[in-house]
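User: Need the bound-state model for beta-D-galactofuranose:
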Amino acid sequence: MKKALVLALLALSVAVLAGGAFAADKPLVVGFSQIGAESGWRTAETESVISAAKDLGIDLKFSDGQQKQENQIKAIRSFIAQGVDGILLAPVVETGWEPVLGEAKKANIPVILLDRGITVNDESLYVCKITSDFVFEGKEAAKWVIAETGGTANVVQLQGTPGASAATERQKGFEEGIKDAPGIKILESQTGDFTMELGKQVMEAFLKKYGKDINVVYAHNDDMGLGAIQAIKEAGFKPGEDIKIITVDATKAAFEAMVAGEMNAVVECNPLLGPLAFETLKKAIAGETLEKWIVQKDEVFTKDQAPSVIGDRKY
Ligand code: GZL
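Assistant: Bound-state model below.
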């Protein structure tokens, strides 16, 4: 009898250990609700998250929201139904997330925001956000415009997606940055929705309306700035000379435009958030207390620096 009991206990402990070991090796399952593929920056971020998941053996459920919040909400609901261990969300706009994030919270699934913020009454609906400081980026752009033009310039502003924190805060930072420089005038601001095509169309309209009165283009991302360059050339002006251009992101394409002398400055915004996203999510799942905002450091690069820096760029 005793021997049988000992054997049974031994078998049970082996099963528990195996089960435990198996559980420890069970891959993390993470849902990633991405905004879309609107810009080179966005593609770089997607690649960073997917390759980090692969490197870490994470089972990543990826959803491309195609710029629509309703698609992102649907994806989050699907992740909840699948019982994922965590959710990464790049929120296309700041508002309208309470209901679905309330469902994730109820299911005890931690949500980490990537590259944009949201406005919610209950901050416990997400663990933290990992983004750049867009107000800082806008202020840096303003600083460059004032220095480059001696404090006198007519600026047209290509805004990002309406309601996106990256757009509202880059505008806020720029406007704060020029408030003590009365010679810097924003002639007009319009959204190019962070895309090259719309950036070009909006710049064509600005050129028709203001022509050579435009001294500077401030674009909330490289892709709209690159679209503006095309429009400026087609209107018979020299981009980078007749009309100066500063954008945000600092993608390889923007560095190539600076090397070509067609863009004047870029404010960096780091899209390579994959490794940090999963490192942070694992801490959240382990119950660690995290800062609500993990800020990415950015800097300005100018046309003169581009040739020596472009070779080191990672996106
Ligand atoms: C910034 C990100 C912005 C980029 C754009 O964190 O949300 O969205 O600046 C992208 O290129 O479309």
